[in-house]
Amino acid sequence: MSLLETLQKDMIAAMKAKDKEKLSTIRMLKAAATNEKISLGHDLTSDEEVSVLSRELKQRKDSLSEYEVADRPDTVASLKNEIKIVESYMPAQLSEDEVKQIVAETIADIHAESPSDFGKVMGAVMPKLKGQADGKLVNSTVKDLLSN
Questions:
Q1: Which fold, 96-147?
Q2: Which fold has domain 3-89?
Q3: Contact, 86 vs 60, CB < 8 A?
Q4: Chain-centre distance for alpha carbon 72
Q5: Tens of pLDDT along 15-59?
């Protein structure tokens, strides 16, 4: 079942349950996926679906940190709920140890030796971890392993 079909089914369930917050979040996700489908001109592949979900999740996490700094507890609570809903559609996330192992293997594969190889390593490792790990975690892991 595609992401759009799943979102449509869950949207109907949220309407029936009168869960306004979940319904609103699902509508935003569905709109983002539909817009991406229209701009690409074809049905979304699973990688493209994950890309849309990752982008939406990142936007919410960035907003969350800004609202926390601004001391807006009402909005923070709402965003945390939205983040949980978006994460429920994401593929399972890898642990730090799994990310570290994949990054170490990639460094060995491309023979990276110093922090100046950071761009090469990130370019090689991100397609492997797309949607399965947070970019900040991957970034810090690459920096740690290259500096040692």
A1: Arc Repressor Mutant, subunit A (1.10.10)
A2: Hypothetical Protein Yqey; Chain: A; domain1 (1.10.1510)
A3: yes
A4: 24
A5: 999 999 999 999 999 999 999 999 999 998 888 898 899 899 989
At what angle are helices 73-89 and 46-69 packed, to 10 degrees?
A: 160
The DSSP result for 106-140, as a single string, is HHHHTT--SGGGHHHHHHHHHHHHTTTS-HHHHHH
Long-range contacts formed by 51-56: CB under 8 A, 24+ apart: 51/130, 51/131, 52/3, 53/3, 53/29, 53/86, 53/89, 53/90, 53/131, 54/90, 54/130, 54/131, 56/28, 56/29, 56/32, 56/86
Over residues 86-138, the pLDDT tens digits come to 989 988 888 888 888 998 888 888 887 888 888 888 888 888 887 788 888 88
